[in-house]
Amino acid sequence: MTRESGVTADPGVGGGEPLVVIAAVIIQRGRLLVVSKRAAPDVFYLPGGKPDHGEEPLEALIRELDEELGVEPLEPRLLDRVESVAALEGVPLHLTVFQAGIDRPPRPAAELAHMKWITGDEPDVHLSPALTDHVLPLLRRTGALAP
C-alpha cells in the first residue's frame, strides 16, 4: 500500500473498468453510519454512489445522500481518496470520501436495504474492503472512532 498526497492505493488491484464512487463518513456518538443495498443486503458500505456525467464530487455526494437517506451533508470536507476493490463487482474502486455531519436523522430509501451505526468491531457485520482496509483504520488513527 502506498500513500501520496492523501491518496491511498493498493498496487495490483483487480482488473476491469474502475468503479468511481463518492461516499460520506458520517459519525455520531462515536459510531459510523453504514448502509447496504437491496442487491446485496448483507454487505455494508459508506452511504453515497456514482456521480452522474459531469457532476462534481460534492454535487454527487449531496444528491446521493438526499436520494438514499433523505439528509443533507453539513460542512462536508474531503477526508481521503481510496483505491480498493468493489465488494460485489470485483473491479477496481476509486472512492472519494468526504466527512460530514447531517441535518436530520437518516432514513433508508431508494435502493438501500438497511442502515446501521457501527463501531467497526462488530463481528457479524460484513463490511466492504474499502471500509475494512482503508476507511476504518484511518478513522481509528485520527481518533474519530475508538481503537
From TrEMBL:
Superkingdom of origin: Bacteria
BP-aspect Gene Ontology terms: DNA repair; DNA replication
Q: Which organism is it from?
A: Streptomyces tagetis
Q: What is this protein called?
A: 8-oxo-dGTP diphosphatase
Any single GO molecular-function term of the entry would be: metal ion binding
Pfam families, A to Z: NUDIX
Listed under catalytic activity are: 8-oxo-dGTP + H2O = 8-oxo-dGMP + diphosphate + H(+)
The family line of this record is: Belongs to the Nudix hydrolase family.
Q: Which cofactor does it need?
A: Mg(2+)
InterPro entries (alphabetical): MutT-like, NUDIX_hydrolase-like_dom_sf, NUDIX_hydrolase_CS, NUDIX_hydrolase_dom
Instruction: Report which residue ranges the record marks as coiled coil.
Output: none
